[in-house]
Amino acid sequence: MLLSGRLGAGKTLFAAGVGEGLGVEEPLTSPSFILARAHNGFLPVVHADVYRLGTSAEFEDLDLPEQARDGVLLIEWGDVVAHGVPEDHLMVKIEIVGEGERLFRFVPSGKWIHKNLAELRP
Predict the structure, then answer these.
(1) Separation of alpha carbons 12 and 89, rounded Å
(2) How far apart, in whole angstroms, are the C-alpha atoms of residue 35 and residue 48?
(3) Which are the contacts of 69, defined by CB distance < 8 A and separation ≥ 6?
(4) Per DSSP, which regions of the chain are E strands?
(5) How far apart are CA 92 and CA 94, in angstroms?
(6) What pLDDT score was predicted for residue 93?
(7) How much is the average pLDDT of 46-58?
(8) DSSP-derived pairing of the beta strands 2-4 and 89-98
(9) What does pTM read for this prediction?
(10) CB distance 92 to 105 below 8 Å
């Protein structure tokens, strides 16, 4: 899952909610200085922040899709590296629309295009 939005939009908070929903017990915090953290839950969760990367080669060297092969990959600033992830992914665009208000747009790619995202809600 690729997360996009400007600074302060709520990418890390959204990722933390996904992690909590997947049974990750420790808090998901921004991995911006270490780039990526792995967490255990019902599924393995790899949470990355690529804000500080300078090149696409640096992203490729992280090999995040392979690290998250058996679980869930959450990439903050994912719009920047969308070209380097598998075609089948979901982009979550978070926009600040007012004080404490956010607009979430879910943009499917690859096989996600054919999924009814409404069915994913509890």
Answers:
(1) 18
(2) 5
(3) none
(4) 2-4, 36-39, 45-49, 72-76, 89-98, 101-109
(5) 6
(6) 97
(7) 88
(8) parallel
(9) 0.89
(10) yes
Residues 6+ apart with CB under 8 A from 107: 90, 91, 92, 93
Q: Indicate the domain borders of the chain.
A: 2-120
Distance in angstroms between the alpha carbons of the first and the last residue of the chain: 19
Could you tell me which residues come within 8 angstroms of residue 58 by beta carbon, excluding any fewer than 6 positions away?
Answer: none
CATH class of 2-120: alpha beta
Would you say residue 67 has pLDDT above 90? Answer: no
Q: For residue 77, which of 89, 94, 101, 57 has the smallest C-alpha distance?
A: 94
72: CB partners within 8 A, 6+ apart? 1, 18, 22, 43, 44, 45, 46
Q: Rounded mean pLDDT of 96-101?
A: 93
Mean pLDDT score, 49-76: 89
Give the model's pLDDT for residue 95: 97
CA distance 65 to 62: 9
CA–CA separation, 30 and 9 (whole Å): 13
Whether pLDDT at 69 is above 80 = yes
